[in-house]
Amino acid sequence: MTEEYVDELDDALDDVEPVVENPSELYEHFRVVVDKGQSQVRVDKYLFERLVNSSRNRIQKAADAGLIMANGKPVKSSYKVKPCDVLTVMMDRPRYDNDIIPEDIPLDIVYEDNELMVVNKPAGLVVVAKTPDAKTHLGLQFYNKTTRRKYNALVWGVVENNEGTIEGNIGRNPRDRMQMAVLSDPAQGKHAVTHYRVLERLGYVTLVECVLETGRTHQIRVHMKHIGHTLFNDERYGGNEILKGTNFSKYKQFVNNCFETCPRQALHAMTLGFVHPRTGEEMFFTSPLPEDMTNLIDKWRNYISNREEL
Prior knowledge:
Blueprint: H1 3-14, E1 27-33, H2 43-48, H3 56-64, E2 68-70, E3 73-74, E4 86-91, E5 109-112, E6 116-121, E7 124-129, H4 132-143, E8 148-156, E9 163-167, E10 170-173, E11 176-182, E12 193-202, E13 205-212, H5 219-226, H6 249-261, E14 267-275, E15 282-286, H7 291-309
Antiparallel strand pairs: 1-4, 2-3, 2-4, 5-6, 6-7, 8-13, 8-14, 9-12, 10-11, 12-13, 14-15
């Protein structure tokens, strides 16, 4: 967190209202996970030691206004933090960092008008707002998950059904705080729905299309792993290991070559849809598969073809 942003956060804490009526309209500005060995201390003291240039009084005011949360629930300043607690400072407006540094890079501009610009870059499709109002409007759409998104993913294993729907609340994995997971307790996590459709079966992997009905953190990665089909080369969720296939050394070498061809999770945003911030028009844009994923899929096609010819 930059010092400039901490100053902005402190100013915002000075302006908080006495009570926040609708917690669903709040935006996360600061997050910290309490260490496993942390002794129990008041949350205002704990945050005071971690928010540069902040004051304990400001933090207490924020807690009184319902802006300090522990594990997603508002807490008072007297709340005693516990190991592995997820503490967040919330605000009534999205966070915007001030330390964006421009770069001189060539842009593949798909669409541009006075309010926004849609850019197709190697890692996927992004929206670049050109006015403060457009930035706020688009930011709210992404935050509230009202944008339309369709993805292609290469996953481990043979997906049995040609299409289906995955439902399951997603929250922090209690065994690994770096991962999200589908939680068995329906009272925990956030409701999440993913629709999938098989596009191509490639032996030990399957190319699928995923449409998000909700937009939770790592949703596709978590939902596909939940049904036994981890994304190919998804290091965080174990997809960078050989999860399906044979023990032959030639196969292992082939898979390792595939990992090198696409050195990231095999997931790509194919379609992005959103409402234009000024006209209200619903707009859709499509981005073709990037070269690394195209080459990866071609490798599996060739592997399957050669195996069938034997």
